[in-house]
Write a structure and sequence with these properties.
InterPro entries: LssY-like-C_dom (IPR025902). It comes from Microbacterium ginsengiterrae. It holds the Pfam family LssY_C. Keywords: Membrane, Transmembrane, Transmembrane helix. The chain is α+β, with helices and mostly antiparallel strands. The chain folds into 2 domains: about 20-75 and about 290-425, no CATH class; about 85-285, no CATH class. About 50% of the residues lie in helices and about 15% in strands. Helix 2 runs antiparallel to helix 3 (about 55-80), helix 8 (about 295-320) runs antiparallel to helix 12 and helix 11 (about 365-385) packs antiparallel against helix 12. The longest helix is centred in the N-terminal third of the chain and has 29 residues, at about 20-50.
């Protein structure tokens, strides 16, 4: 297929009606946001009623920063932040992120060769292990030269590859740049071409995000210095690299990124041509398709919580002395009724376990059923709480409500939705994120 037809197909894909699966995920995302707000309010109310009110500020902050505010920002930013290219990235929560200030011409292998020769390290993926390592490295001030970077979005997807340079072994301070491969046939405003677009910033310290209250890195205000550092390091280490600059690619401006940090830029866009560099080894960097093939952490957590709750409930029933005593003393009619209730409860718990397994097998319908069941359960629990039928104190009832809300939030997350829709997104290899071969 020729490049113009590639471009038309990509543009037509962007104009397609929203699929029903996507509509369902958006509704589930909204319900999850409401559940997060309800959970934060309930825990805040219960927390201030205890002598340990100050200690409850930590879980209240965690729920607000990592569950409530990101959902609210995502819902609102989808309404007012344009979904087309205008020189800015977006955070995973939908907020405007770092400026696009760099371009690359060349293959993935040539890009990696150029960056590696210039002393840049390939950043690790965000996993439970890498997250824990960067936390401990920051606290103990130990070097972590391949620490992961937070996800930023461009072209509707997460960055394809990221590089960083640690400063004097301090994980709080680092040069870093994210790269996205341009869609097939896509041109920059004005008609220029770049195989990759990048966003380079310099981390100065660790702090609190002004918009979400999450712990994050703070960046240096002058992003042009970091952009020029990337260009100079690559060209000095790679004599075959050439640079052309798109002057006034955007007007010079100052703004804030997704963490609330101020930044400024002169609007120039240097594009480094690395086509003259010969890679020492072939490389295959793929866009998010392989990541979707792996089970997202949110799905794994949700399934683990479903299994945990089902097992705990079964154990509680089997070890309930009062229940077995009632069964022993019941007449035939009462025993039949109780056994029927237990059978329904057991089937429900077993059904949850089966659906959890089917979710891991990428069962879209199983995930939808779990979301619906959790939604119904949370709605009934909220109604019972408001009319006084159920009292949610600092006990197992509140713990159960919290687990259900967190499970719903995990299953309704963007990563879980994208993972569940992977078959439709990868059915046509020419649609969606391109495969980037070196």
């Amino acid at each position: 297929m020729t490049e113009p037809s590639h471009r038309r197909k990509w543009m037509l894909q962007m104009q397609q009606p929203v699929p029903r699966a996507t509509v369902f995920d958006r509704v589930a995302f909204l319900i999850g946001a409401a559940a997060a707000v309800w959970l934060a309010v309930i825990i805040a109310i219960q927390g201030v009623r205890t002598p340990w009110a100050l200690a409850w500020l930590i879980p209240i902050w965690a729920i607000t920063a990592y569950l409530v505010l990101p959902r609210l920002h995502r819902l609102l930013s989808d309404l007012y932040v344009p979904d087309y290219f205008f020189g800015r990235t977006r955070t995973a929560d939908g907020l405007l992120g770092d400026p696009v200030n760099l371009g690359i011409d060349g293959t993935a292998a040539q890009l990696d060769e150029a960056m590696s020769a210039a002393g840049w390290h390939h950043a690790d993926e965000i996993t439970a292990a890498s997250t824990w390592r960067i936390i401990t490295s920051t606290i103990t001030r130990r070097s972590y030269p391949t620490a992961p970077v937070s996800s930023l979005m461009l072209f509707g997807r997460r960055h394809d590859v990221a590089y960083q340079q640690e400063v004097e072994g301090n994980p709080k301070q680092r040069h870093h740049v994210r790269f996205w491969h341009s869609p097939p046939g896509w041109l920059l405003p004005g008609g220029a071409h770049a195989d990759w677009l990048g966003a380079a910033t310099y981390d100065t310290d660790v702090g609190i995000s002004f918009f979400t209250l999450q712990i994050t890195h703070r960046i240096d205000e002058n992003t042009d210095i970091e952009r020029d550092h990337v260009v100079s390091s690559v060209t000095e280490a790679n004599p075959g690299a050439k640079v052309r600059v798109l002057r006034d690619f955007t007007t010079g401006y100052h703004s804030r990124n997704g963490g609330g940090d101020r930044f400024e830029t002169d609007g120039d866009l240097p594009i480094i041509d690395v086509n003259g560099i010969t890679p020492r080894a072939p490389l295959d960097i793929s866009a998010p398709v392989p990541a979707i093939a792996r089970v997202p952490l949110t799905v794994a957590v949700a399934v683990a919580l479903v299994v945990l709750v089902a097992v705990v409930q079964l154990i509680e029933v089997l070890t309930d002395d009062d229940l077995w005593r009632t069964l022993a003393e019941a007449d035939a009619a009462e025993m039949s009724l109780l056994l029927g209730v237990l059978a329904v409860f057991g089937l429900f718990a077993i059904g949850e376990l089966i659906m959890a397994g089917m979710v891991l097998a990428r069962g879209r319908r199983s995930r939808a059923v779990l979301i619906l069941l959790l939604t119904v359960s949370i709605v009934f629990m909220a109604v019972d709480y408001m009319d006084g039928t159920t009292v949610l104190g600092l006990d197992s009832a509140l713990l159960g409500a919290s687990v259900q809300c967190i499970t719903l939030l995990c299953l309704s997350s963007d990563s879980a939705g994208a993972w569940a829709r992977r078959a439709a997104r990868t059915a046509d290899p020419e649609v969606g994120a391109p495969k980037i071969s070196g």
